[in-house]
Specification:
Helix content is about 20%, strand content about 35%. With about 350 residues, it is an alpha+beta fold. The chain folds into two domains: about 210 residues, P-loop containing nucleotide triphosphate hydrolases (Rossmann fold), CATH 3.40.50.300; about 120 residues, OB fold (Dihydrolipoamide Acetyltransferase, E2P), CATH 2.40.50. α3 packs antiparallel against α4 and α4 packs parallel to α5. The longest helix is centred in the middle third of the chain and has 18 residues. It is globular and about 65 Å long. The protein binds adenosine-5'-triphosphate. Adenosine-5'-triphosphate (ATP) binds next to α1. One of its GO terms (cellular component) is membrane. One of its GO terms (molecular function) is ATP binding. This is Molybdenum ABC transporter ATP-binding protein.
Length: about 350
């Protein structure tokens, strides 16, 4: 394996009824989501990268060699510059928020400190909570403290194991913007384990799909989400991810217009966004219907001409249709009857009516 930038992890490990065998070549920045069903080995991967689990193989992180069996190199976990955030924030109950955050930072030689405590506190919005004891924090606040504490160790990578899974929807919505901000401002690569397609759509810049201890597929989230042969593109949560830029904001109607290769989509949102800003949109396959001719006098604002690329069976009575709208993938989940009655087949042009679209970022 090379010492080049990027995260390379070749890991092999056998348990009684589970084998992990992966060769991960991940970007050295951004958020890599590890996604897959329960028991597929996501946590085991993170733990092996951290050195908490002894797998055979090698782990290189942006030039640092943490493990390389061929060279008999093994760096113990406490010497790996990493931050680990668990599902449940495991804060020290007898220490204030401030002391919790200082914990890793104080143990680090000054020359190795790349993230200041003030910056970590500011990034996670914790300045008003520094004197509190952990028992008096909400779940979302606790998780923000855990993340700030992980940053105190000036990590070369942040390993996040379902950091939002224990939180309710409101708390998730509270913590997510902090994760995005962290990513934008500190640019520390994150390996992010999740079960949630929402979190993948919102955060991930690279996606690894795991199944039964192996890599099923990896690549750009938008590309993998629209692959009908992969599990993300089945069922109710199947969605396309559309990358574009804000073209206009109509304050009166709270309507944002986002342009992308293939057209533009209007999305209602309470908050203004600046023209020119990047935007990610999530379009659920169940919110897209298809018509043979341009619909007239419809309440649907978004109608895009598109070409049918592929039709695959979905739930009983349903098919998933992959569309190409000028180079951007969309998906529509329609009934088998509609497909038959409209005579829809691969290679044909249709009009996609997008009934719902949401900002994913
Ligand atoms: N300490 C352990 N001892 C033995 N088997 C384990 C241990 N930890 C996990 N396993 C098994 O290893 C496999 C992979 O577990 P892992 O926790 O990595 O999966 P996961 O994808 O993270 O699952 P989840 O999404 O449920 O957290 C599972 O079959 C699990 O039962």
């Amino acid at each position: 394996m090379s010492a080049a930038p990027g995260i390379h992890a070749r890991l092999q490990l056998a348990r009684a009824d589970f084998v992990l065998d992966v060769d991960l070549q991940l970007p050295g920045d951004g958020v890599t989501a590890l996604f897959g069903p329960s028991g597929c080995g996501k946590t085991t991967c993170l733990r092996a990268i951290a050195g908490l689990e002894r797998a055979r193989g090698a782990v290189h992180v942006n030039g640092d060699v943490w493990q390389d069996d061929a060279r008999r190199t093994w760096v113990p976990t406490h010497r790996r510059a990493l931050g680990y955030v668990f599902q449940e924030a495991s804060l020290f109950a007898h220490l204030t928020v401030q002391r919790n955050i200082e914990y890793g930072w104080k143990r680090l030689p000054a020359a190795q400190r790349r993230v200041s405590l003030e910056h970590a506190v500011e990034l996670l919005g914790l300045s008003a909570l520094l004197a509190r004891m952990p028992q008096l924090l909400s779940g979302g606040e606790r998780q923000r403290v855990a993340i700030a504490r992980a940053l105190g160790a000036s990590p070369r990578v942040l390993l996040m194991d379902e950091p939002l899974a224990a939180l309710d929807a409101a708390r998730k919505a509270e913590v997510l913007p902090y994760l995005e901000r962290l990513q934008r401002e500190l640019r520390i690569p994150m390996l992010y384990v999740t079960h949630s397609a929402d979190e993948v759509a919102r955060l991930a810049t690279h996606l690894v799909l795991l199944r039964a201890g192996r890599v099923l597929a990896q690549g750009a989230p938008a590309a993998l989400m629209a692959r009908l042969d992969l599990p993300l593109a089945t069922g109710d949560g199947a969605a396309a991810l559309v990358h574009g830029r804000v073209q206009a904001w109509d304050a009166q109607d709270h309507l944002l217009t986002v342009g992308f290769a293939g057209g533009r989509l209007h999305v209602t949102t309470p908050h203004a966004r600046a023209v020119g800003e990047e935007a990610r949109l999530r379009v659920l396959a169940r919110d897209v219907s298809l018509a043979r001719s341009p619909p007239q006098a419809t309440s649907v604002l978004n109608v895009l001409p598109a070409c049918i690329v592929q039709i695959a069976p979905d739930a009983p009575g349903q098919v998933m249709v992959r569309l190409d709208a000028g180079g951007t993938a969309l998906m529509a989940r329609i009934t088998v009857r509609s497909q038959r009655e409209l005579g829809l087949a691969e290679g044909e042009t249709v009009f996609a009516q997008v009934k719902g679209v949401a900002l994913a970022d």
